[in-house]
Specification:
Keywords: Fatty acid metabolism, Ligase, Lipid metabolism. This protein is α/β, with parallel strands linked by helices. Helices cover about 30% and strands about 25% of the residues. The radius of gyration is 24 Å and the shape is globular. Bound molecules: adenosine monophosphate. Adenosine monophosphate (AMP) binds near residues 185, 418 and 434.
């Protein structure tokens, strides 16, 4: 017998409708590309999203067409992204830090019909324009600008385009499994691959993201998504903020530590989200300015492993609870989140601190298992010690990549993440590496993340990457590539000594190489592949 409850498809438009009706005057602060501040609220965002939807319809874009955005986190981007998905188009958020060849590839692969871009990215657009013939509309997310109009004569300006439109658009209703947005993975090998999200997967992910045991978001929060909207939807925050009616501070292009500290203090931010490299510069800026980040109740760190020293600094110096989360583009992105359970209250302070180091446990909606090999199906024990390949399954996990017929799952329906971890009985996942970053020394695995975490605990190290270097006897041995804190005189011997007693002797790196900077990917992760290319041979010719 069928149940007798209403059925409403889970659509992204319902989020903005809800925010406009029940959180109309909740503030959204947005930093423009010229650095000026724009203040708006959920009602205005919703009305402008409807104006934009009318404007897009007038451009003869059709249901299911991809419309790209190449933009920072700002209010026009937010309006446009609700307009695009809400009206049945697919919002393709592009990472501007990709190489031009990759940009051309993904824009053509997605068959984008229009691109909405911030003025910052005008040079990128003019450079690739000749190679993206399917894009018929270039919309600059600004008021009229003579420089932009001169460089790109066919450009339309967002403010002009929507000013003539009425906010009378009625969001269409369609199947909840319709595609809503598209993100490409960074593509460290080969071309980037697209993850195509549905309205349903996005809404279910949003419910889970807001939960107290996830990102713990509410109408009482002022959220600063430092993580860009082009990095897996800023980890879902623009959707989550609308769902709970939170206030948002959109930082625009100013992602340096000083700008972020100022935003947190000026707008009393309660929650901020970003990758560890962002927090690194924010902590340095806060120390320099003497800010205590008083309003920051918690910060979400993910995208790469959060070094224990960073967690301790937020807790002890800033009284800020770090929520360490693990995820990936293919998981929308939330996979696990580190929040304690009631039983952990009994633990000592040290034990609690140790528990908070892992990447956490899955919320309802994602299932996680460890298996014996990549794409394997033999399940390993959940004992907190056994290390295996992490596979996931759930309502917001990818089935197949955009444009690929074949599904990307194991024969029993799980997605292999390419990550290596242990998991305890409660589901707390401890990521030791990407499979390809593990260091295999004489047949034994060494976790590069663990070596990096220890190095980052040294007060004179600003950033560190551990890589596998080829070795004549042991196949591979760890080498640490490190950036010193400004004016530090720390030596290789000091760092190697620092490892003593913290890990087994044979796991201590063979060499420490100091560099001025570690190359970062478009989403702020250390590019270990580049480091391996450069330093992978440094141990050859040496005797063990
Ligand atoms: P992306 O799809 O670009 O967000 O990259 C996803 C990958 O980032 C994951 O498969 C992990 O290897 C890595 N990652 C994300 N969050 C964490 C974390 N908290 N700790 C360690 N690695 C992480």
């Amino acid at each position: 017998m069928q149940g007798r409850m209403m059925f409403q498809p889970l659509l992204i438009s319902s989020l903005i409708e809800h925010a406009a009706q029940f959180h109309a005057d909740t503030t959204i602060i947005s930093k423009n590309t010229n650095g000026s501040i724009h203040e708006t609220n959920w009602l205005e965002v919703s009305e402008n999203a409807k104006r934009t939807a009318n404007a897009l319809a007038a451009l003869h874009l059709e249901h299911g067409d991809c419309v790209a955005t190449l933009a920072w986190n700002n209010h026009r981007h937010l309006e446009a992204w609700y307009a695009i998905s809400g009206s049945g188009l697919i919002c393709h958020t592009i990472n501007p830090r990709l190489f031009p060849e990759q940009l051309i590839f993904i824009i053509n692969d997605a068959k984008d019909k229009a691109i909405l871009f911030d003025k910052t990215f005008l040079p990128l657009i003019t450079a690739i324009k000749a190679h993206i013939p399917l894009v018929k509309n270039f919309i600059c997310l600004e008021p009229f600008d003579a420089d932009v109009a001169k460089a790109l004569p066919e450009v339309k300006f967002y403010d002009e385009l929507i000013s003539g439109q009425k906010p009378d658009y009625v969001w269409p209703t369609f199947d909840e499994t319709t595609a809503s947005s598209l993100c490409y993975t960074s593509g460290t090998t080969g071309n980037p691959k697209g993850a195509l999200f549905t309205h349903r997967s996005t809404l279910l992910h949003t419910f889970a993201a807001c939960l107290p045991d996830s990102l713990d978001l509410s109408a009482n929060d002022i959220i600063l998504p430092v993580v860009p909207m082009f990095h897996v939807h800023a980890w879902g925050t623009p959707y989550a903020a609308a769902m709970v009616g939170a206030s948002m501070i959109l930082p625009g292009p100013g992602l340096d530590g000083d700008s972020l500290v100022n935003l947190i203090d000026e707008y009393q931010v309660t929650v901020a989200l970003g990758v560890p490299t962002i927090w690194q510069s924010l902590l340095a800026a806060a120390k320099q300015s003497g800010s205590k980040l008083t309003t920051l109740k918690h910060n979400v760190i993910g995208g790469s492993a959060c070094p224990p020293s960073m967690l301790a600094t937020f807790r002890d110096v800033y009284d800020c609870e770090t929520i360490h989360a693990w995820g990936m583009t293919e998981a929308s992105p939330l996979g696990t989140v580190n929040r304690p359970k009631a039983k952990h209250r009994k633990l000592s302070v040290e034990e609690q601190a140790a528990l908070r180091l892992s990447q956490g446990r899955p919320p309802f909606g994602v299932n996680v298992r460890l298996v014996n090999e990549e794409n394997g199906t033999h399940k390993l024990p959940q004992d907190g010690e056994t290390i295996g390949n992490v596979q996931i399954k759930g309502h917001w996990i990818i089935e197949s990549y955009f444009g690929k017929e074949k599904n990307s799952l194991t024969e029993d329906g799980w997605f292999d993440t390419g990550d290596i971890a242990s998991m305890d009985a409660d589901g707390y996942l401890h990521i030791s590496d990407r499979a390809k970053d593990l260091i295999k020394s004489g047949g034994e695995w060494i976790s590069s993340v663990e070596l990096e975490n220890i190095a980052m605990g040294h007060p004179e190290i600003a950033m560190a990457a551990a890589i596998a270097a080829d070795h004549p006897k042991w196949d591979e041995r760890p080498v640490l590539i490190a950036v010193k804190q400004p004016e530090s005189t720390v030596t290789e011997a000091d760092i190697l000594d620092y490892y003593e007693g913290k890990i087994a002797k044979w796991q201590i790196p063979d060499k420490v190489i100091f560099v001025d900077a570690i190359p970062l990917s478009g989403t702020g992760k250390m590019l270990k592949r580049k480091l391996r290319e450069e330093f992978g041979n440094v141990l050859l010719g040496e005797n063990a």
